[in-house]
Amino acid sequence: MSNTSSNSNVLTTVTVPTYSGTSVNEIPLIRRFWMYLISNCASFICSVFVLYYLLFDKNLRRGLHNHALIVGLIINLFALVLDIPLVLYRLYYGIVLIQVPFICQLWKYIDTVSYTVLPKLVGWASLERHIMIFNERRFLRSKNRILFHYIPIGVVAGYHILLYMIIDFFVPCQNTFDYTQHYCAYQSCVYQTAYAIYELSTNGVFSSVCIAFFSIALIVRVIYRRYRIHRHVDWHKHRKLTLQLLFIVSIFYILYFPLIILGIWRYIIGIKSFGSQYYVYGSFFSDYINFLFPFVCLGTIPNLKTKIRKILLCWRIKLSAIAPRTVNNLQQPTGQTRITANIA
Q: Which three-class secondary structure state does DSSP give residue 23?
């Protein structure tokens, strides 16, 4: 698709993204562009802020409950830096920025990895919170930390990184790339086989069930311990772990689960056009999982307000230091001596 001479014309003549035969004309293109741009910039700043403290603060870095979030934030940061800018360029100009098949494959690879790894990390974190709150002594031994903490996180991230690298870059397929479409309309030929059912079962159903079951079970277990059998649980100590998990899970309840359930139902009934209008908006707003994830991770940082005030104060001091100043040199009248005062 050729670009017009002015940006305003481009914004009104580009191809409208479609999903399953339904367009998103209800959301103006310029509004979609600015929604993604503002959200991506804010999410990038928040990601850098959270990762800085999680990686360079020794106490936060050693906290086992932060490790899954650190891995998720790093993977999510790649999506914010590499995936979303390509989406923004295509939204604005109606064509892919770099029209090379490898870039299209890389684009699809980064999006798929972030979209599959984050739910599984949250699902594992939901299970791990049970151990941290109700059986925290299990992690006192280094052997248990390796078996039940480091290895699961490494397997979840490493498995999907390697799997989709093979699918997107090494499986020989004959693809036709359309540089006016999202991801250049690229999709590996693997999805035309029984692997599509496997991915739907593992990445869709399994992740959703894990997040829903373990997060709800955590709430029920805490309430049961406190009010039914009156066993001691240090709620003040573990309140932050529980609430942090619930905030993270909430974005998946809103933006992830409905789309997965709709996809499963469409596969069962065999009608791909079923719920197309919702599927359009669900697909569009699914990127807000990446945008909102750093913000729900802010709760891991203690004394957050104090840290933000210090950053703003330093920023204001630097601005005042580099701001131009006007110095008025007052001439002394003839015959008079300047009087100076020595201030200790």
A: strand
Determine which helix (DSSP H) or strand (DSSP E) holds 294, and give its type and residue range.
Answer: helix 288-296
| Burial of 54 from C-beta contacts in 10 A (0-12 / 13-18 / 19+) | buried
Strands (DSSP E) contained in 187-330 are none
Token couple for 314: 């330093």
Query: With contact defined as beta carbons under 8 Å apart, do 85 and 30 qualify?
Result: no
What burial letters (b/e) apply to 64-73, b meaning 16+ CB within 10 Å? bbbbbbbbbb
For 129, 285, 328, the CA distances from 246, given in Å and listed in that order, are 11, 20, 59
Question: For residues 148 and 159, what is the distance between their CA atoms, to the nearest angstrom?
Answer: 17
Specify the residue for token string 């001691």: 232
Average pLDDT, whole number, for the chain?
80
Residue 73 sits at the vertex; the CA angle it makes with 69 and 216, to the nearest 5 degrees, is: 40
Say what the pLDDT of residue 319 is: 62
Q: Give the contacts of 3 (CB within 8 A, at least 6 positions apart).
A: 10, 93, 94, 95
pLDDT average, residue stretch 18-25: 44
Return the structure tokens found at 85: 């800018």
Hey, CA dihedral for 310, 53, 245, 225, is it positive or negative?
negative
What would the pLDDT profile of 31-50 be if each residue is shown by its tens digit? 889 999 999 999 999 999 99
> For the chain, which domains are there?
28-309 (1.20.1070.10)
Residue whose tokens read 């729900």: 296
What's the gap between Cα 148 and its chain centre?
A: 25
The H or E element spanning position 18 is strand 18-19
How many CA atoms are closer than 13 Å to the CA of 103, on its beta-carbon side? Answer: 14
d(CA 306, CA 300): 14
Which amino acid appears at position 309 of this protein? R
Asked whether the predicted pLDDT for residue 21 surpasses 50, the reply is no
Distances (CA, A) of 297 to 50, 263, 294: 7, 28, 5
List Cα–Cα distances, 52 to 56, 67, 259, in angstroms: 6, 13, 33
